[in-house]
Amino acid sequence: MMLEKLKKFTPKNLASLIIFALIYFYLLYIFKPSLVFLNTTVTGGDTGSHNYVFYYLKKTFPSIHAWSHDWYYGFPFLYFYPPLLYVFGILLSYFIADNISFKLITLLGTFILPLTSYLCFRILNKNSIPEIAGILSLFFLFLEQYTIYGGNIPSTLAGEFSYSFSFSLFWLFIALMKKGTEENRHLILNTLLLSLMILSHPIPVMVSLVVMPFFLFLNFKKNLFYIIKVYVLAFIFTSWWSFPFLFYLDYSSPMVWKKFIRVSDIFPLSLVPLKIFALVSAVYGFLKRDKSIMLLLFIGVINLFFYLLLDNSKIWNTRFLPFFTMSCILMSTYFIGIILKNMKHNFFFLLLIVIGSILFINSKLKFIPFWIKWNYEGFERKQSWVEVKALFDYLKTLPFGRVMWEYTPEYGKFGTPRVLELIPMFSGKPTVEGLLIESALSAPFHFIIQAETTFTPTTPNFGFRYPSFNMKKAVEHMRFMGIRYFIAYTDEVKKEADKVLPKIGKVGNFAIYEIPQAKLIEPLFDFQVKSEKNNWKSQAIEWFIKDELSKPIIFSEKKIEKPKIKNIKCQLIKFAPDEITFYTEGVRIPHIVKVSYFPKWKVEGGEGPYFVSPSFMVVIPQREVVKIKWEY
């Protein structure tokens, strides 16, 4: 048996092994295992904030869905962000350190792309040289033209590692779907691949859907039934996550993306030769009616169409550009393969191509090696870590309360400008800014306050104009939103904060202030009631911008009476991820609970919860002690 396998092992197989050994040797050389396996907290861009998601999932595991108070006044944890890679990391962390397991999952998409590219082309064209696809995938991975769109190494380092994993699986899935529709095979394998994509990132899944008409055009009746089976089965297998995602989607934040287009992103100089080869391949494939090339061409054209035309959408148009780029690279593989096929000793030339490609890519690198070192050496290896670590330690000593902080790019020296989003992880205090913006119904209101507390706001687009810096107004908003502490860093903001807030501490360059009378639960004496639920999110945003804080809007079909008694004592008893308990003298008087509204909160000892502007809950106690419980 072993001898038979050895006899089948040809020089071609040996060349393939050498090629992939060189590819992965180069990837390991760039990513430095000595840094990846260093037990430090990975940082850089959004990646640093993803540490919290991993940290919190390990606390709730094996439960995936949960509630977290730690970001954005509370948000439904992993309802609107795919959990697969974090789950992989959690399982791995039972054998190795948490920090190392998390680092490893951030690299999965990058390391499997050469392999899935090879398999994709091997399936699409049996007469091709699929090793070329694996080699040329390096040109995409090491593309430094863009750093956040997804798929390439800079995007992965910026935090798009889930996208990268799903993106890498996409090319194998599309190739197997072609083979599956032609031969009526691979149903389970295609279902599995699609399920992994769904649980990793939604964009490649959306792209796969818009590619399916290509297969319907080839054979509508036969392929329609196969496609339906794959997508229905994948939805069933992932329904534990995908169904809640779709069902509760209305309770995510209403983010809007403006399109961003650069010609240099479409035609990076480093890829111009490959784009030319891709064009030749497209023409040749079209004339020869080569279905594989026409499939790649369709993927490229449809994604370029979305990139150029998608605007004011919940999906950023740039997310589709990596599919155009990669489809061009795979089409260029076809052209290069035709040339090599007609050459003697073509695998010798393949070795020259892989070595030449690696040397060329390495000579053109500008920032990737530095960024890899910056990320994987971790927060703890930064010279400024001592200062921010001292802040985290100081916050631990304070009584419980939400923390708001001035945003400034100066925090980048700590590892990422988002470093203070890890306050819950390092200090045990909730903060009002985090990573998963679309997951948080309260996110728009946070960023309004952020604009009032910093001269360098991030201003994500929710479809409204942000206010200018105004610390006095910010204090009113923070008090209303139940924020107890504010942290300033720059001299300009500290100067303004000193005028309106009592300073309670100083750590390095950080100044810590306390907002008086900031409460998480209090009786609501004046309000308006609206039974109309259409556009309730936009109405709440408009109410907040108009600064009508004294008269919140309760959205309820029930008639709610305004209280006549004003002097009511109310005390928070418990504030846990799955339970909020409070005591009140105001039975049958509405109380505002300053936690983001979500339908899975249920009240014991009262009515509600009802949605109240800006994004909180109102309950009407029927007894002195009221519990609001999270329904798992």
Automatic annotation (TrEMBL):
It comes from Thermodesulfobacterium geofontis. Signal peptide: none annotated. The keyword Membrane applies. Residues 79-454 form the Membrane protein 6-pyruvoyl-tetrahydropterin synthase-related domain. Keywords: Membrane, Transmembrane, Transmembrane helix. Pfam families: PTPS_related. InterPro entries: Membrane_prot_PTPS-rel_domain. This is Membrane protein 6-pyruvoyl-tetrahydropterin synthase-related domain-containing protein. The chain crosses the membrane at residues 12-31, 78-96, 102-120, 132-149, 161-177, 189-218, 224-249, 269-287, 293-310, 322-340, 346-363.
